[in-house]
Amino acid sequence: MRLWPALAVIGFVALWWVATGPAAHHTIPPPYVMTAPPAAVLAVRPARDDIAYTVTRTAFDLPGYDDVVLQEDRGRAFATGVDGVMWRIDFTTGMASRLLDVPLMPAGLRAVPNDADRLLFCAARYGGGEDNPAQVPGVYELNVETPAADEIAIRVPYPPAPAAPPPENEGTILTGAALHEVPIAALTDDNSRPIAFCNDLDVSADGRRIYFSEPFAYPGASMGPGAVPEAITLGTNGRLWRIDRARGTIALVAQGYTFLDGVLLEDDADGNELSVLITETPKFRILRLWLSGPRAGEDEIIWESLPGMPDGLDRDAAGRIWVGLYGERTAALTWVHAHPWIKPLLLRLPLALLPVPHATGILVLDPTATTPLYHVMHDGSRVREISVAVPGVDRVYLPSFARNNRGLVTMPYPDALGAAHTAAERR
């Protein structure tokens, strides 16, 4: 009779294990080993937590937001609220107001070149994936004067079957004849699928081409809590797409990357896209994908084993690259990825039981992205989940993805960077 309690516990655990099993597309990867953070990054870390000492807030009606477009010369800014609203900030009054309830949750915000009244943004589900057939993920354009949001693309063509990348590549980059452009107007249920998860975007200097990331494309894919299983398994399901507005086409640019997130274009001397920087957030990596020129089709790991998860990317007037470090790389995270046998258990646990780092930060790189200029980690007491660092004229804006964030969060330029920024503004 004494065996019955033990058997009951074993039976309960077995039933729980089966009932909470992850979806079939969440497969366990081989070990992913991260080393100590790069010494060059740690060398530019200040002695104090600059964010804790210098951060300020205005526009307290603004909730958590993923990205912000600054138009300081016009006295305004626009932010993508986690509440599914595009917000407008008035720098004269220091107030935020709801501009438009846009489809789903807006993210990845950019202004159309030479037209400050038009904004490009991604729309994505948040959490477990809202089921609202009237609102679909995709790339949208917002006219801030109307205001109205119009869809640019909500479907993508079925990509070619994933091929083994070149031996020197992490994933596959499609260029030249392999870059198959499909008319957006010709996409149907037979030759395409809905965009599952539009996460971030950037736009070419002439405003003609939009590049956007799709970290993974499972049914009901979503950001926030809905992305945690993909971050645990490190699946190579990330894709980069390109929309050509003048030609009315869409094409797959890259596939086979892990949670392809932040997107920042790099131009050649003629202003054409030469390469693109991307972040593989849960792998703590920044990569460069070569789109044209003699290295077209190649990729290179610029930074790996970073001290924080690299999320969004931006560039200041001096050409320096600002990286939001969403969460700190803890010893537990490093251990989990190196020992994937524990991941089947983690995939079954409620989100509240998973170890979530509170610390967040930023990283600044030189224009080539190869030399760290500044790095700080913050304990999360003043701001959480920094998704990107957006440089302004005399301050840096720190969008916070945390749903309970209140206000527009800023900090002054660090002393080590202020002079270069001021000089760039004079030019």
- By oligomeric state, this entry counts as single chain
Number of helices: 7
Instruction: Kindly provide the radius of gyration, computed on alpha-carbon positions and rounded to a whole number of angstroms.
Output: 22 Å
**Helix proportion range:** 10-25%
Number of domain units: 2
Q: Unreliable runs, pLDDT <50, ≥5 residues?
A: none
In what range is the share of β-strand residues? Answer: 35-45%
SSE class? mainly beta
- Please state the average pLDDT score: 91
Q: What about the largest sheet?
A: 6 strands, antiparallel
- Termini separation (Å)? 85 Å
Strands, total number: 28
Principal-axis shape: globular
Q: Can you lay out the helices and strands and say which pair or pack?
A:
Layout: H1 3-19, H2 39-42, H3 50-54, E1 56-58, E2 65-71, E3 76-81, E4 85-90, E5 95-101, E6 105-112, E7 115-124, E8 138-143, E9 148-153, E10 155-157, E11 172-173, E12 182-183, E13 192-194, E14 201-203, E15 209-214, H4 228-233, E16 238-244, E17 249-257, E18 260-267, E19 273-280, E20 285-290, E21 299-303, E22 308-315, E23 321-328, H5 331-338, H6 343-346, E24 360-365, E25 372-378, E26 390-391, E27 395-397, E28 408-412, H7 415-426
Antiparallel strand pairs: 1-28, 2-3, 3-4, 4-5, 6-7, 7-8, 8-9, 10-13, 11-17, 12-17, 14-15, 15-16, 16-17, 18-19, 19-20, 20-21, 22-23, 23-24, 24-25, 26-27, 27-28
